[in-house]
Write the structure tokens for this entry.
Amino acid sequence: MKILHTSDWHIGRTLYGRKRYEEFEAFLTWLAETIQQNEIDALLVAGDVFDTSAPSNRAQELYYRFLCQVAASSCRHVVVVAGNHDSPSFLNAPRELLKALDVHVVGSSTESAEDEVLVLRNEQDAPELIVCAVPYLRDRDIRVAEAGESVEEKERKLIDGIRTHYAAVAALAEQKREELGADIPIIGTGHLFTAGGQTVDGDGVRELYVGSLAHVTAGIFPACFNYLALGHLHVPQKVNGSEIIRYSGSPLPMGFGEAKQQKSVCLVAFDQIEGHSTAASVQLIDVPVFQRLERVKGDWDGISSRILELSATDDPNRSGAWLEVIYDGIEVIGDLRERLEAAISGTRMQILRIKNNRIIDRVLGQIHAEETLDDLNVNDVFERCLAVHEVPEEQRPELLRAYQETVSSLYEDDVQAE
């Protein structure tokens, strides 16, 4: 069998207010073509199909259209489990209808392990794969909260709950395999955070359990799994060096911190030799870049030189690069945005975010490392200026009122002019 493991699509996610539907559509088109070209038998999606629990109509359209494309291909099975960004009830709603297309959806954990252990059959109705389709395990699914418990007790209960859940589905999977009398692979899924897992700044990966990290170790997973398809972390990686416990990573960069990261999906192959399945062999298939992201950082000379380089290598057959510009020069530049807009004039590049470290850090007083001027409204900026210039507290309310009246009158003049 050939199995394709992917996760963390986050359909509908925006980047600094910019919609990315064209990227998602291009990825799903590429994925459908990759499935066909590689004669994939089963597709596993390990959570975070959507970016929010209430996806837009456009996001839903992309998802269902893709499932129909795959159902019409040589791929015999699709297994989708929910991640922490997904709504279990939303994913589950069309579950019975999707079964007719051999698309199996597990949106949430239930009291019965049967709901998560899937026996997939080939065209001759012979069993060929068992999938322990474990979705994101919510706090309430795996432990009972008690008043007065410590963080350590909560952590221990979460880890024990996850371990117990996987042990139950794995035991049922082994029982089914024995009853079937067939030497077929058992694959597990999961949407969680393993100890030592790699993340990058701005990737949008959320902590899963409030008040606790609950990072599990590789030893928590049953030994009977021939492959474990994980989701949640966006960096493609092995767990504890294991070839068969992997995060496929997100197929699109979720932020500029992932801009230089090679994205991929995992092709997992099992061969049959004299009726026995071989160990899984894993090959990474690189995902193309559908929208170029560039983080440009430095002083003004460095930034302007880099923008000039990017404009010289601009590919007219692709959409222009999206830029994040981080200015950390010594000179205070008050008209940084205007300079940058002039620098990209006549190109197809677009600036999505500007972070002026000099203004924020030395003029307004930065509160946290990721703060930019875009994070502050006009009142925030004025109040920061009052604080930085040590204006007495008793004078600030009156100055703020006068400032707000001035801004309001300017806004009214603009409206009248229109």
Notes: The longest strand covers residues 350-356. The CA atoms of residues 189 and 229 lie 5 Å apart.
